[in-house]
## 1
Amino acid sequence: MASKPAVGVLALQGDVAEHLRALRAAGAEPAGVRRPAELDAVDGLVIPGGESTTIWKLIEAFGLAEPLRKRLADGMPTFGSCAGMILLAARLPDAASGQQTLGAIDMTVRRNAFGRQVDSFEEDLDLAGIGGPPFRAVFIRAPWVEQAGDGVQVLATEPVAGRIVAVRQGPALATAFHPELTADDRIHQLFVGMVKESA
Amino acid sequence: MTNETGTQRVKRGMADMLKGGVIMDVVTPEQAKIAEDAGAVAVMALERVPADIRVQGGVARMSDPDMIDGIIAAVSVPVMAKCRIGHFAEAQVLQAIGVDYIDESEVLTPADETNHVDKWQFTVPFVCGATNLGEALRRITEGAAMIRSKGEAGTGNVVEATRHMRAIRSQIRKLSTMSPDELFTAAKELQAPYELVAEVAQAGKLPVVLFTAGGIATPADAAMMMQLGADGVFVGSGIFKSGDPATRAAAIVKATTFHDDPDVIAKVSRGLGEPMVGINIDTLPADQRYAGRGW
C-alpha cells in the first residue's frame, strides 16, 4: 500500500476537522466519510466526538449502519473518541430511544458518566501503548467503560473515578476523552500505525 | 492535583462537539424529546420562543429553574439556557442548575446597557451573539467560548442571519490579507485586542466555533448558512411554530450535515407542511429589532 494510508473520519456531525488535522499530522491521508461509497475508499475509520444520538440517527438515515457493521466485522481498523467510543460499544445501558451501536468492542459504556458540562475536565493520564510522558486528556461530558470483556485490553483508567477510559480490542481503539483537541498526536500515531499494519 | 474543570479547552471543546449540528429552542420537556428524537445536538430551554416574545411583549427574562430542570430530566443531549445581556446573577443561577451552556442573549431584555457578563468567572461556557467581527471578538475577549451570528430571532426571515454571517466571514478574510502594521489599525477599528485580531488574521478563522442563528426556518436556510461558513445552526421559532415540527426538525438536521448536496436538500424539503409565517424585517420598528442589543 502507499506510505500514507487513507483514513476516513465519519463526517456526519462533531469535531471532524480536529481529527482530520491530527491524522494528517500522524502521517495519514485523511478524508471525510458521509456516504457508503466514501467508506469503501478508506483503509481505516475514525468516529469523532460529537453527539452520539445525532450521529446514530444520521448513520441510519443515510444507509451507513450495515456498511459500517460489515467493514468492522471484516476487521477495518477504527478509532472512536467520546461519542465514537459510545458508537463502538457492544452495550449501552442508558441509550436514548432508538439509539443503537456498532458493537466493535466487547464493552458496556455509560453515556455522560462523568457528569454535565460543568464537570468536564482535563488531566494527565498514564496510557499504555504509547511511550513518553503522561497524556493530557480532555474529558467533555465524557462516557466511561463500565465493564470490559475478557478480550479487551485496558489502556487507561481515570484515577479519580477509577473508571476505564481507553481500550483496544484487535483493530478497534476507543477513548472516552478527546486526543484530537490537543497538539499531542501520539494516539493518532498509534492508530495510523494500526491501519498500516492491517493493510 | 492535575484535574482541572472550566478550562478554555474544555469550554471551547464542548462547542467543537456541537459542530455540524442543529440546536433547537424548546419550551416543554415534550418538545425537548421531539427535538432529541429528530437529531438535535442540543436544546435551548426557554419559556417563550422569540416569535412569542415578539407578540406578547413585556420584559423577557431567564426561564424558571423548575422548567429548565424538567427539560434536563427529559433528554440526554446537552441543555442550554439564556440569560439577559449583563445579568451575571441569572448566569450564576443557570450554572448552579447545571445547564451545559449559557446563551447571553439579545432575545431577552438586556439587564445592563454598558457591560456584558464577565464570562471568565464561570465554569460553564457561554455562547454570545454577534452582528460583525468586532462584536464577536469583544465577546471572546469577555470569555465567550462560542459565537453565533445574531440574525433577527423570531422572524422566520433569514436575511439578517445572512447579513451577519457574511459580515463576519468577509471581515476575517480582509484581516488575512493585511500586513502586521495594518493589523494595529484594524484592531483599533474593530475595538478588539491586537493579539486576538492578529490570531484571527493568522488562522483565517475565529478561535472559537461560529454558529448561525435568527430566522432559520427551512432546510435550505440551514444549508445556505452552512455554505456561508457557519459551523452549525440554531433554530428557534422555526421548528415549533411550523405545521409539523418533528418532520421539519429532522429535515433541518439532515440538511445541515449534507449542506453541500442539493439532491439531499431537495429530498428532505418535501412534505414538511406549513413553515412558520415569518415577518419582513423592513416592517419591524427599530425598537423591536433584537440584533441591535449588545455592543
Note: Chain B has 13 helices and nine strands.
## 2
Amino acid sequence: MNKTDLAGAPGARPPVVRPEDSGLQSAGTALWRYLGLMALAALPLLLLAKDPYWLNIIAFTYLMGGLASAWNIIGGFGGQFSLGHGVFFGIGAYVTAIATARYGLSPWLVMVPAALLASLVAMLISWPTFRLKGPFFAIATMAFNEVAFVLANHFDSFTGGPRGIMIPFKAGFANMIFRERWQYAVLMFVFVALVVGITVCLRRSRLGYYLLAVREDEDAARASGINVLSVKLQGMALSAFLTAIGGTLFTMYLRFIDPPSLFTLQDVGVKFALLSLIGGVGTIAGPLLGAALIVPFENFLRAELADALPGMNLAILGLLMVLAALFMKRGVVGAVEDLVRKIRSRRGGR
Amino acid sequence: MDQLLNVLVIGLLLGGVYGLVSVGLNLIFGTVRIVNFAQGELVMFGMYGGYYAYNILGLSPYLSVFLVAPAVGLLGVLIQRLVIQPLHNESNMQIFATFGLLMMFQNIMLAVTRGEARSVGGDFGAQVIELGDIKVGTVRLLTFVITTAITIALHFWLTRTMVGKSVRAVTQDKRAARAMGINVEKTFLMTFGIGSALAGLAGVMLTPIYSITPGVGGNFILAAFAVVVLGGLGSVWGAYLGGLIVGVVEAFAGYYIDPALRHAIWFLIFLAVLIIRPAGLLGQVGAEEVGFREQN
C-alpha cells in the first residue's frame, strides 16, 4: 500500500480509479439519473401522504438525507472527516429561532444570511484545523462541536440556555409554519432535492474534481497546482451553508430548539457522517440512501425499545456503525456496485 | 494569595485526574496511532467495576483495582483484535467504529442501570488533609500520587525494558521493526491492552470522587484528547505535564471567569496547540504525521 490512502481517504475507497469513474458522464445522463433518484425519493411521500406518523418519519428522512448529503461534500468528496457539523447546524437553527421568535422576522429572510454566517464561521474555524490530518482533524472538529454546546448553554440571554427557544405557532407560508404534516414533508423534499442537485453539479465541476484530488492525495494535488487549502475551505463553506439551511428547516419544523437537540454528537454531528457512511461515502445517492435506511429504522427501534430498555436503540445503532465500518466499508452503494460487477463478470462481460 | 494557592492546588490535583485518564489514551493514540473514542467508556467501565466490587464484594477501590483493571485491559485486547486490527490502515473507519463502540457501551450501561447515577458512598471521598489554610482531598492527593507513579513506571518501561523498546520501535517504523524480528501485531495488541487497563485503573481510582453515570466517559474523553495533543503524542511526560496544565488552567478559568465556561478552555488550549505547535509540548516535531504516512 502506498501512502495515498492514509491521510485523507474516507476509509475504504481504494485509491485506484474504477472503470466506471474513468469515463466522463454526459450532462444528460447525470440529469436523468438525478431525476430518477428524486422520483424514487418522492415515492414514499406520494404513497403515504395521508398517514401523519409516516409523514413525520418521511420529513425527517428527507431532512437528514439533505444534511448527510451536505456533509458528504466535504466529508465524502473532500475526504475531510468533520464531526463538527453540529456547529453549522446550530448556527442555522439559533439564528432562525432568535430572529423569528424575538424579532418576528420571516424564516425565509433569515435563512440565507444565517447560512452565510455559518459559512463564514466554517472558514474561520477550518482555516487552522485543516492543517490537521485524518483523526486529528476529526477530533478538533469534535472539540468545536462541544465548545458550541457549552457556549449555547452559557450565553442564555442570547440562546435561552438550557431552557431553549420556543417559536410560537403562527401558521402561514411566510412564517414557514404549516398546519399539515405533508406540507413540511414537501418542504424537506425540496431541501433534499436542492442539496443533491448541488452535489450532482459539484461532482461535475472543477471544484468537485479538485476535492476528489485532495482526498486521494494531497501532495500530488498540490504538485499539480491545486491550492489545497483554498479547495478545502470552499468545500467546507458550501457544506456548512447547506447544513445551516437544514438547521433552519429543523427549527421551523420542531418549533423548539435547545442545546442538546442541536449539538448532541450522536444525533447531529456524527449522525451526518453515519448516514453517509452507511449509504456510501463520496457517492451522490449514498447519503440519501443511508438516511432512508437508518431514520425509519431508528424510529422503529425507539418505538419498540425505548420504554423497555432505555438507550438500547442507540446501542443497536452503535453496533451497526461498528459492523458497517468492518464489513461494508463502501456503504450500501458500494455493496450494490460490487454485486453488479460480480454479476456482469459472471456473464462474461467486461 | 491563599486563594490563589488554593486554586492552584485544586488545579494540580485535577490535573492529576486528567493525567491519569490520559495516560492510557496517550499510549494507544501515541504509539499505535489509533483514535479510540471509546477510551472514555473504558474509564466508565472501570468506575462501574469499582462500584460493583465495592457494593457486592465489599472491596475497597484500592483493592478491586487489581481485579477491574486487568478485566478492562482484556476488553481492550478484544476490541483491538476484533475491531481495530481489521481496520489498521483506515483511520477514518477507526474513528467511525470506535465511535460506534462508544455509543454501544454507553447505552448498554444506560439500559443496565436505567440511567441512575451511582456513587461509592461515604468515607473515602470526604476525607481532607489540611495544610495551613489549604485543604486537600485525600483521594485526590492519592490520585495525584498514583498518576505520578504510573508515569514514572511507564517511562522506565518504555525506555529501559526490551518490550517497551519494541513498542517504541513499532511506533517509529513498523517495517524496520518487523525486520528486526518484532511481532508488530502482538505489540499492538499488548499496547492496546495496557492502555485499556490504565483506563480501567483510572476509572476505579475515580469512583470515590465522581458520581458514576453511563455518560461519564464523555466528560473525560475530550479532556484526555486535549491533554494528549497538548503534551505531545506518545510522550509519557507530555501527558503528565499536559494533564497538569489543563487542570490548572481549568481551575483558574473556573474560579476567575465562570465555572460553566471551563470546558471551553480545553478547546482554547487545543486550538492554540494545533496552530502553534501541532507536535505538542514534549512531542517530537513531526510526530503527528508519523505513523499516518507509513502504515504498513
Note: Residues 266 and 318 of chain A are 9 Å apart (CA to CA).
